[in-house]
Amino acid sequence: MKIVFRVDSSLQIGSGHLMRCLTLAERLKKENGSDVYFIMRDLSGNLIDLVKQKKITVFELPQVEPGEALAGYAKWLTVTQEQDAAETIASIEIIGKPDILIIDSYAIDITWENMLRPYVEKIMVIDDLANRKHDCDILLDQNEYRNKDKRYEYLVPQHCQLLLGPQHAILREEFYEERKKIRVRDGKINNILVFFGGSDTGNETMKALQAISMLEFNDITVNVIVGKSNPNQKEIEKFCDKNNNMHYFCQVDNIAEFMNAADLAIGAGGTITWERCFLGLPAIVVAIADNQVELTEACASKGILVFLGDKSTVTTPLLSQAILNIEGRTLKKIAQNCLDEGKDYGRRNIFASS
User: Fold this and answer.
1) Which residue from 24, 27, 133, 178 could staple onto 260, CB 3.0 to 4.6 Å apart?
2) Kind of pairing, strands 306-310 and 246-250?
3) Are 164 and 171 in contact (CB under 8 A)?
4) How far apart are CA 141 and CA 155, in angstroms?
5) pTM for this structure?
6) What separation in angstroms does the CA of 89 have from each of 59, 81, 92, 101, 125?
7) How many other CB atoms are there within 10 angstroms of residue 191's CB atom?
8) Residues 264, 189: contact at Cβ < 8 Å?
9) Closest among 291, 294, 280, 288 to 331, alpha carbons compared
10) CB burial readout 259-289, b (16+ within 10 A) else e
């Protein structure tokens, strides 16, 4: 099976879309023996080299200054959908007709997909916004929403196979291995993991570190992870160096191990929500993007995390108080809720019936 991914990463986009595609690509290579290719645009802060390190062929689309007419998520492509589609078609003609084209971009919709339709056997879309129409055969939205069964009702063709909810979550193999070594958390905080994704342009990481520092938890281990594209790396590393209990790490490939060792996580919403939950890790969550709010509220209502709100409203004192409030019985209960909720995450083969 030949599978092509169209996905980007950048300072603006972050790394989440790319990382879940990489995870899926590696699974398809291992389990299905698929040949996988990535088509990515050369954007500022991209992680194209990371894909190449996985011995995956990448077709690079040229870097372009965003057009003034582009707005919202359209800026992610830096060109019109028509131009991006034409450049993607040129790459696919070199690769050869793929069995499945997988698209993971908030900037792409039915306009782009209609142009690609003659050049592929099937189209799969990974989405969670449910705000635009798609011409696709499979749609994956691994997030939890109160109305998840209705969100795409008029946005995809009738024949489209919908894969909805975290039972379809794309989890790396390391998470399944760590789940086998899961430990019982007793409600005490001895280890805190701080991770706000690959770029964290708003520097919520520093806000969290300052909140922990205010509490003078000098005997608690604090592991701080940032992505390679984080623009505040030096500032964060310097802050950690001044605090003996804070340990700085950049672009790790064993985050599941860090999660399993932690008693509490402080971080963003998004894909990492399912990773934390799968390993029974309670979290205090700050939404760093608008699309994280609804799904994080839904998860908070299930008791699998504590949601403080959008980054614009979350202050350092609020974070400090949340850490104090969660320790003990609340922390232990959330950990158990996560284990119960996450036991079936990622267990379904995405292409089992496609």
Assistant:
1) 178
2) unpaired
3) no
4) 13
5) 0.85
6) 11, 12, 5, 11, 17
7) 18
8) yes
9) 280
10) bbbbbbbbbbbbbbbbbbbbbbbbbbbbbbb
Determine which of 10-24, 98-112, 164-178, 337-351 has the lowest per-residue pLDDT on average.
337-351
| First vs last C-alpha separation in the chain | 13
Which helix (H) or strand (E) segment holds residue 212: the answer is helix 204-214
Which residue type is seen at 176?
Y
3 state DSSP class of 251: coil
pLDDT of residue 354 exceeding 50, the answer is: no
Say which amino acid occupies 279.
Answer: L
Q: Report whether 102 contacts 134 (CB < 8 A).
A: no
pLDDT digits (tens, 9 = 90+) for 59-80: 999 998 877 788 889 999 999 9
Q: In terms of Cα–Cα distance, which of 83, 67, 47, 4 is closest to 250?
A: 47
Q: SS3 for 229?
A: coil
The separation between CA 113 and the C-alpha centre of its own chain, rounded to angstroms, equals: 23
Given the DSSP bridges, would you call strands 57-61 and 100-104 parallel, antiparallel or unpaired? Answer: unpaired
Q: What are the CB-based long-range contacts (under 8 Å, 24+) for 158-162?
A: 160/134, 160/136, 161/137, 161/353, 161/354
